Amino acid sequence: MTASIRLLPALALLCLLHAPAASANWYHGNAAILEDEVLVEFWHDNAELAPRCMDMLRTEMARVNAMIDVSDPDSAISSINAAAADDAVKVSTELHSLIDKALRFGPVTRGAFDITFASVGFLFDYEQRQRPDIDATGRALEVVDYRLVETNRRARTIRFKKPGMKIDISGIAKGHAVDRAVKMLIACGATNALVSAGGDTRALGDRRGEPWTVGVRNPKTAGSDVVAWIPVIDQGVSTSGDYERFFEQDGERYHQIINPRTGDSPSDVRSVTVIGPDGIWCDALATGIFVLGIIDGLDVIESLDGYEAFIVDHRGGRHLSSGMTTTTNP
Asked: For the chain, give me the number of helices (H) and strands (E)?
């Protein structure tokens, strides 16, 4: 029995799944994860069960959010940041697996995806338009290294090897959330679906005979303008852009994507979109490629089976991996 099925008592879920079919149709709903709205569209053959599926999904998004929200001092990830430099912190199997997976993206992305970037990232205040000075950045960079996070799978513990370290797994959290949402919809009887949370999207199957189409926002306007549409069938799509949280100061743009080597925001790229079979991989790769830049980023993508990338550079130029397909119309 999967974790998503355990969210309801087995007997109750069995009754739901065997409820009489009422009306096969598309159903829509929304939830929330971190600072983003989760938009859901799915096909179901039971009009009575469909709303209950959405209720289950909202409960699940709230649970995941409570685990990974670094802005919540009571979240599980905040508990790690508060104590893991002093002693190993025991965590849930799910969170341990997420952190362990996040650390593995370090070597895959040549160090560009590093959850310990938070040691520097937490020094930025985007609302107050404040960035750390050179000395503070230098001190924080001394503990930015994913290899300084120690995991023990058997004991399910996380430990930091140096004081002052912080981690933030938001770079894969929404990919995890949309993957979880799709698994729940499958368990609830949905056959086709699209789940979107900000820049992270997951498709279940197709749109009843046609591919889903996911728009890539124009990073220059950061509004409803779309620079390309990507056809998607049973895949994940993640976009990392410099327009989510940012401020400009002294002619420089400071945004939420941090280069773990320098503590600065990369400026050569405006957005990176990755498509592939696993939402978490897409999420991490989009961030890692953004940091790596066009040449090294595309080199990494070309080395991975099943993943493709679409990059918009700081001049508006478009760069596609060899197997990437985009369209101009939805």
From this structure: 9, 15
Taken in order of first residue, the domains within the chain and their CATH numbers are 1-46+171-205 (no CATH), 76-167 (1.10.3980.10), 211-330 (3.10.520.10)
Question: Tens digits of per-residue pLDDT, 90-122?
Answer: 999 999 999 999 999 999 999 999 999 999 999
Distance CA 236, CA 66 (A): 23
Distances (CA, A) of 95 to 19, 64, 145, 199: 34, 9, 19, 22
Q: At what angle do helices 49-68 and 93-108 cross, to 10 degrees?
A: 70
The closest of 158, 41, 29 to 101, measured between CA atoms, is 158
Reported pTM:
0.90
Residues 6+ apart with CB under 8 A from 17: 49, 188, 189
Q: 141-155 pLDDT, tens per residue?
A: 999 999 999 999 999
Find residue 36's DSSP bridge partners.
33
Buried b (16+ CB within 10 A) or exposed e, 99-125: bebbbebbebbebbbbbbbbbbbebbe
Token couple for 237: 């799509």
Residue 53 CB neighbours (<10 A): 23
